[in-house]
Amino acid sequence: MYEICISTYFAAAHYLRGYEGACENIHGHNWNVEVIVRTEKLNSIGLGIDFKNLKKVTDETLARVDHLDINQVPPFDKINPSSENLAKWVFEETGKRLNSDTLRVHRVNIRETDFFTASYFEER
Hints:
By secondary structure, the protein is an alpha+beta fold. It has one domain (2-121): Tetrahydropterin Synthase, Chain A (2-Layer Sandwich), CATH 3.30.479. It has 2 helices and 4 strands; from the N terminus they run E-E-H-H-E-E. It has helices at 51-62, 83-98, and strands spanning 2-14, 27-39, 103-111, 117-121. A 4-stranded antiparallel β-sheet has the order 1-2-3-4, covered by helices on one side. The longest helix has 16 residues, at 83-98.
């Protein structure tokens, strides 16, 4: 089994509905995002996926929230834009474009600060 990982980032504002504390106020983060895919097979030149393609799909997904108030962007207009929910959303949205018979998004890590990270993955 091979794992391929890219790291990228986006900046955006959000607030947590129902949170008691400073995070209930609108504030911003420079989120770091890691997307890890898995494959058992390599292509004819020995790649599971081109890093550039993986990053392009991830960055196109993140462009939908970059430099915005995430609370205004579906589905986060209805669910809290927590790091946990953002990780699941990136997992699902990148998976729609990348998953195939031979390649699957395995895990997404969202780091909202140097010290706080949330991950989403599904057991298979």
